[in-house]
Design goal:
alpha+beta; 6-stranded antiparallel beta sheet; 3 domains; 36% helix; single chain
């Protein structure tokens, strides 16, 4: 086709005519000349086309995306397309689908982390068998493993117990065993014999104080690092750190009432625990506080030292 615009008169292939006419920006009435597809079959929806036809229709857009990716994202076309797709989903409020896609992109899969599943099981008071039932049902209905199996929860649980993290005190603590294992002991062992007025038998899961403290600090690693970053101490790793701890003991009432079934038993549960109140770091002549517990009276920040049935 010969271009009808004055001072151009260029001959163009029929298929490229629309592209050529759009290059005449100064022309106000170029719409009059642009090619109109009269008749012919209507355009099919992009998703219903074959892969080859999709490539053909999107080749111009693909070229633009490739140019953008090379210029801005180091040639990562996949990241650009995925981000465009996520934005399109979120613009239509398809947030659940977007979240699942984002999880897959980040290599997390769409399942929940074992520690999250453990928190759900504990906070909803599910027994192991009840949780397992829910896990199987959800897996069967959705066809996906959203919740994690019980053995993964047990592994996650071990990481939360004192004695899990190997550690070494420098200098070594006086009168404290170097063995970090913890176990079940008599909760009243080591107390003077003047408590004969209370003929109670106890069984307790008691943790070594230093092992429990190490576990608590390891658990708070992210908060400590964030606090250091906030005080511009990100490269400062020497110490000494000053950790202020509040100890507490809490009667947990009649155990029989908690379970609500079976005969009433005279058992009481007692918990000895501690809370990390604040952590400071010596820097030069001053002490910089890098962590402070916002809710020091909340049971959520109590770290167990001894759980005892009396």
């Amino acid at each position: 086709i010969r271009c009808p615009i004055k001072e151009c008169d260029e001959e163009i292939l029929y298929g490229k005519y629309g592209q050529h006419i759009s290059s005449h920006k100064e022309m106000k009435e170029r719409e009059l000349y642009s090619h109109i597809n009269k008749g012919g079959r209507p355009r099919q929806h992009l998703l219903s086309l074959t892969r080859r036809a999709q490539k053909h229709r999107l080749r111009e857009l693909k070229r633009q995306v490739k140019a953008f990716a090379e210029k801005e994202e180091g040639g990562d076309i996949k990241a650009v397309c995925m981000t465009l797709f996520l934005l399109a989903l979120r613009a239509k409020n398809e947030h659940r689908q977007a979240d699942e896609l984002e999880a897959i992109m980040q290599g997390r899969g769409s399942g929940l982390h074992p520690a999250v599943c453990l928190a759900i099981r504990v906070n909803t008071f599910l027994s192991c068998s009840q949780y397992h039932k829910m896990y199987r049902t959800v897996k069967a209905v959705t066809g996906r493993q959203i919740f994690q199996p019980l053995h993964a929860l047990r592994t996650a649980e071990k990481a939360l117990l004192p004695g899990y993290h190997p550690f070494e005190w420098k200098p070594p603590l006086k009168n404290v065993s170097t063995n970090t294992e913890v176990g079940i002991i008599d909760g009243l062992s080591g107390l003077p014999l003047s408590i004969d007025d209370y003929p109670v038998d106890t069984i307790a899961k008691r943790f070594r104080y230093d092992a429990a403290l190490v576990c608590a600090l390891k658990d708070m690693e992210e908060e400590i690092l964030e606090g250091m970053k906030a005080k511009n101490l990100d490269d400062y790793l020497n110490g000494p750190f000053t950790v202020v701890v509040k100890e507490s003991c809490d009667g947990m009432g009649d155990v029989s009432e908690k379970h609500g079934s079976g005969p009433a038993v005279p058992e009481k549960a007692v918990r000895f625990s501690f809370t990390v109140m604040n952590i400071a770091i010596a820097h030069g002549n001053e002490s910089k506080r890098i962590f402070e517990e916002v809710k020091p009276n909340s049971e959520l920040c109590c770290k167990p030292l001894c759980l005892m049935l009396a």
